[in-house]
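Example: Tim44-like domain-containing protein.
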Amino acid sequence: MFVVQSGAVKFKQFSRSFSSFSRFAISCSRSTAVGTTSPLCGKHSPRTLAAWSPSTVGAFGGSPMVNNNHNIVQMRWNSTDEQSSRQRIRKRPMLMDFPQLVWPSVIKTIRNWIMVHFIIRPYFDREFSLPEFIQGTKQALQVVSSSLAGGEVKQLEGLVDRAALADLKQSLAKMSVAERYDIQVEKEDVYFSFPYQVGVMFDESDDDSQKRFVEITMVFHVLRGLKGMIERGETVPLNVGVLPEFRDKISICNYRFIKEFTKGVDSDWTVNVVNHFKPSDYVEE
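Written out as structure tokens, the predicted fold is:
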């Protein structure tokens, strides 16, 4: 569960109940991620490939190139027209270099359930609830996105990892005011969300104690204006994600949360990956 205080989100510490348990093999500079397909050490470790990728670009149209001035002009006109069309569909700069995750993975969903019920709850936090965690991440999504939209990155110190903040500052500097405004998300506008990947990490680089971390990657599907539609009593179609009239209002957010569960350490959930993108940016007319 997350709590907002003084304009910044403070993640409420889950009560912990540790017991002795089997130690897992350690790698990645004596760190290993359990339940992931790639090392989780470091803040920007490579992740599972995206489940969705931009559509491929078609070739230029036009008449075949032959030794004829008319056809040459026609080919050049078509090329210029398509280039200008591409310029109009300008993609918003990515906030961070992270795979664009869109849909759940069946294998990862099963693995996540096992991680939560057989690792996290028995050995890390007996009161951990994934549904409550997801609700808290929506609140974090709203606060982080609002601060980024307003260019108030300093307010995110303590909530967002320092290395991630440095990347976010550079990305925001490349955005226009309109593009930054488009980042802002109301939690009530999230119409679909799920944990894409749950990972547990152990680090024995310190001989005195074994550090333990839990890392959860969340995916949010957002429809701008959804809150207003519901308040006005408008019917929201179940297939809203594929309707052309809503295409430009839909965005997808990837956030990764991490928390240290080392015995004797008082830690909060923090964010080490923030990414927003719009599927419509990758669809050509």
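The chain has six helices and seven strands.
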